[in-house]
Recover the amino acids of this structure.
């Protein structure tokens, strides 16, 4: 059975890994919408350019999804750490 310090280290490693992964996804989501905006503006959806939809709605929905994913994953990480702490 790992010590309290080892359990804390495992928890922090999992939390950092999740945070870095979600930050990389956040950066990619933002970068794609900005970097490819000129090319995406050639595609038209319902009379508006696709870059407009990505900037106005798509990116915001992506950010909201990232927050939800973070909350769900952290709940799992925390409950697993709590189970390990109590020996369940």
């Amino acid at each position: 059975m790992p010590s309290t310090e080892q359990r804390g280290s495992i928890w922090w490693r999992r939390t950092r890994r999740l945070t870095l992964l979600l930050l990389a996804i956040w950066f990619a989501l933002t970068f794609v919408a900005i970097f490819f905006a000129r090319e995406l503006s050639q595609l038209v959806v319902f009379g508006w350019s696709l870059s407009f939809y990505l900037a106005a709605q798509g990116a915001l929905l992506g950010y909201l999804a990232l927050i939800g994913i973070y909350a769900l994953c952290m709940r799992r990480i925390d409950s697993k750490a709590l189970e390990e702490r109590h020996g369940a």
Notes: Residues 4-86 form one domain. The chain has a mean pLDDT of 85.
